[in-house]
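Box 3.1 — From sequence to structure: Type II toxin-antitoxin system ParD family antitoxin
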Amino acid sequence: MQRIQLSARDAEFVAEQLSSGVYETVDAVVAAGLELLRERDDAELRQFIQEGLDDVEAGRVHTYENAEDLLADIKRGLIDAHQP
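Predicted structure (token representation):
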């Protein structure tokens, strides 16, 4: 296991988690934090997928004859993933 360097604030938080009995080890605190990050990332990905499915269902799609045409639009900046 690699060692990690924590800020004073984070080290204090970990110590509080241990002293309160919420977690028994530093490894358990870190594992819980990593699990929350995974869950957040998964939820964000599911949201992006749902937005894409909603766009398809609403007809907000563009069909390309080939990959070159798609690439040309991307290069011209006609496709912006952040626009509704």
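Summary of the box: The chain has one domain: 8-76.
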